[in-house]
From TrEMBL:
Domain Gfo/Idh/MocA-like oxidoreductase N-terminal, residue spans: 48-166
Protein name: Oxidoreductase domain protein
InterPro entries: Gfo/Idh/MocA-like_OxRdtase_N (IPR000683), Gfo/Idh/MocA_oxidrdct_glycsds (IPR050463), Gfo/Idh/MocA_OxRdtase_bact_C (IPR043906), NAD(P)-bd_dom_sf (IPR036291)
UniProt source species: Chitinophaga pinensis (strain ATCC 43595 / DSM 2588 / LMG 13176 / NBRC 15968 / NCIMB 11800 / UQM 2034)
Gfo/Idh/MocA-like oxidoreductase bacterial type C-terminal domain: residues covered: 212-271
Organism domain of life: Bacteria
Transmembrane segments: none
Entry GO MF terms: nucleotide binding
Length: 481
């Protein structure tokens, strides 16, 4: 009897284990949408990434993302010439020209999307992906206009997705070192910031070409134009020089602002600016005849933005481009490089100063001898995996996970940062608003300070400037909000 009972016990145990194994196996093949909501990825999975804009910077973005637990499964680009290297690198990825078609057909097989298109297409591509619950990595600047930046910031939270803007310096050690110096009180309360760049390194302040050119057979020009007004194709616009035209790019501010303004913006906890004013470089086409090229960004500019600081004191941020630079700090030696030479940022406090180069690299206290003499404790975690893999890991972990909360440039930060540089561009564009009345020409947006109501997203003292807050898309394109 005992033997019989033992046998029955063993049989029962084997039956239980078998049923448990079957149940476990069944659990493993439950569809991911049953396990979690929008944007959920099973912890054992790799991130399935689709790239929108996969040539040039898009190619390097995908290559970096692929270093993490990610598979590049779909590629999308309007120009097969530019996409060729990514197609060769990721031969298993299916290729599309229109991201709308790709998302419509393949969204069930995509976890996350990268957007590395020209600036004017960032928002529509990112928004379409987020509305499908896809995590997004978007190149800087986040958007082309202020309304888009505010809309994407809200959409990231609404759709519960993990986001990252492509300003890689946000994950660097430099900005974290500067934050530790600032938090330790080494330079006191900052009241003035200078940011500068040697950009543009492409033509600006020029007229649109009158020479119509033949569209390359590999390029879908209509798709490239996307949200922008229709214009005939011209040479030397694609793939780089679009940056100098307002319909597509955001000038030197869009190209470098997110890299250079980001350190002071993060360190000081800046929010939306309250006012902006500017002066811009001139192009003269004849004696005393200033060129008027409102479609193109100016060759240089100096913008002054005012913020309310956290301590109740005002903070002034100067932006300079086109090779214009601020006065060298008196603490900097005559042969020492300011910033990294062509680019940099200086933060001036009531107790001291500090500076850095592009991406927050090479942070220095001033005088620079203080840098090696100062030893502050490390209080802010570094990002050894880098900007791209940080996003991959956070996307796998999911929205609002501990890894998501450590993301370096989520839209909650990248959105307001982008709005700041786009506010500077709003002032620059307002400078060129032309009025004709009774045979007289005037430029009412020049030499004034624009006052910004961030809640209502409008300039309160010069209504003509508000046309630059939100673009009108070409027919057939929508942000979906």
């Amino acid at each position: 009897m005992v033997e019989k009972n033992n046998k029955g016990s063993h049989e029962s145990r084997r039956s239980f284990l078998k049923q448990g194994a079957l149940a476990a196996a069944g659990f493993m093949i439950v569809p991911r949408h049953v396990l979690g909501g929008k944007g959920f990825i099973a912890p054992s999975d790799r991130l399935r990434v689709a790239g929108i804009g996969v040539g040039g910077k898009g190619e390097s973005d995908l290559s970096e993302i692929a270093k993490g637990p990610a598979d590049i499964t779909y590629l999308c680009d309007v120009d097969t010439r530019r996409a060729a290297a990514s197609v060769a690198r990721f031969p298993k990825a299916k290729f599309y020209k229109d991201f709308r078609e790709m998302l419509d057909k393949e969204h069930k097989h995509i976890d996350a999307v990268t957007v590395s298109t020209p600036d004017h297409q960032h928002a529509v591509a990112a928004m379409a992906a987020m509305q499908l619950g896809k995590h997004v990595y978007v190149q800087k600047p986040l958007t082309h206009d202020i309304f888009e930046a505010r809309a994407l910031t809200a959409a990231a939270q609404k759709n519960k997705v993990v986001t990252q803007m492509g300003n890689q310096g946000a994950s660097g050690d430099g900005v974290r070192q500067m934050m530790e110096w600032y938090n330790a009180g080494l330079i006191g309360d900052v009241h003035t910031v200078y940011c500068w760049t040697d950009r543009p390194v492409w033509p600006q302040g020029i007229p649109w070409s009158s020479m119509k050119a033949e569209v390359p057979k590999e390029l879908d020009w209509d798709l490239w134009l996307g949200t922008a007004p229709y214009k005939d194709y011209i040479d030397k616009l694609v793939p780089f020089n679009w940056r100098g035209w307002w319909d597509y790019g955001t000038g030197a501010l869009g190209d470098m602002g997110c890299h250079i303004i980001e350190p002071p913006f993060r360190i000081l906890g800046l929010g939306y600016p309250k006012s902006v004013e500017c002066s811009v470089g001139s192009v003269y086409v004849d004696e005393f005849k200033r060129g008027y090229f409102p479609e193109s960004c100016p060759p240089s500019s100096h913008v002054i933005l005012k913020f309310d600081g956290k301590n109740g004191k005002e903070i002034t941020l100067h932006w300079m481009d086109g090779g214009i630079q601020p006065e060298r700090p008196e603490e900097l030696g005559p042969n020492e490089i300011m910033g990294d030479g062509g680019n940099g940022a200086i933060l001036i406090g009531d107790k001291g100063k500090m500076m850095c180069g592009t991406y927050g690299r090479d942070p220095q206290l001033l005088p620079t001898s203080k840098t090696k003499q100062t030893n502050t404790p490390q209080t802010i975690a570094r990002v050894p995996e880098g900007h791209y893999v940080q996003w991959v890991n956070a996307a796998i972990a999911g929205f609002n996970s501990p890894k998501d909360k450590l993301i370096s440039s989520p839209f909650s930060i990248a959105g307001p940062l982008t709005e700041t540089l786009l506010m500077a561009n709003l002032a620059i564009r307002s400078f060129d608003i032309k009025k004709e009345k009774e045979g007289k020409t005037s430029f009412p947006g020049r030499y004034i300070k624009l006052l910004w109501d961030s809640k209502e997203m409008k300039i309160t003292n010069f209504d003509d400037a508000n046309q630059f807050v939100k673009r009108t898309y070409r027919q057939g394109w929508s942000l979906g909000v």
